[in-house]
Amino acid sequence: MVYTLSAGSPGQIDFATYHTGANNLPWPPSIANLNSEIGLTPDNRDATVDRFWKVGTSAGATATLELNYLITELPPSPYSDPAELRAQNYNFGTNKWQPSLPGQSATSYKVNVNGINNQSDWTLANINSPLPVEWLYFHAILEKEVVSLTWATASEVNNDFFIVERSKDMLDVEGIEKVYGVGNSSSVNVYATKDLQPLANTSYYRIRQVDKNGTEEFTKWVAVYRKSGSAISVVVGPNPSSELINVSGLNSPFQLMLFDVTGKLILNHEKINASDEISIAHLPNGVYSARFISDELGLFTIKIIKQ
Length: 307
Fold this sequence. Notes:
The chain is an all-beta fold. About 0% of the residues lie in helices and about 55% in strands.
């Protein structure tokens, strides 16, 4: 490992690196995943070198980092080409691996990373199976008779395009808009479009993101309920959810009844404030019908998936 100062003063510098087994274990302390963006199982071990690096500085500085590894630490074919390896660092705030910084150079058996600041924990993954990045948000809001859809990415690697998908039941899905992505970016990118003809009553929306190699990733569904002749709409999400459901759009308390697929009443909250989150963490995984009763919109039903 070579740390070359470009600007500023790093203060005290601490280095550490270690070899792992072919399963990339043990992970460094506090790292929670080595997930695969393209669906390798059980994780991205077959596209990641068998080594981790850690760099710590006590002050701010900009530097170039050279990460060296052994030929025996290369991942197996088809991810074993040294020229296709890129360095990625871990963000402990989000528990996500960050996309590779631009301008890297890779040769046998080292990778050079320019413009690093305070990033600490590193590994090398094949560019055809990068460690995954994160969505910042996806929002759907009814504005008069049009649904405005906005989403943002924190960064992009080989992103080709997005498809805005709509459904009446989260089963029969149609693509209503194609939006091209930036491609490769280490900064925030915001996208927006509109559904000019939303479905009657409830529309479910999600974003399908497609990489240049055909790999797909989906946001969770967001449900938008609109009542004809009313200026009020309700947005329910995320969907599916493992813990909490958020309901926005109502201005006064409402009643929520949750039914399972057999029609059995599972939950009955007689009064929920508009700002409250609804916990479904204790429920078995499955599909539920959420029946809302409000003074503003009367009775309406939205499907919820617990997973």
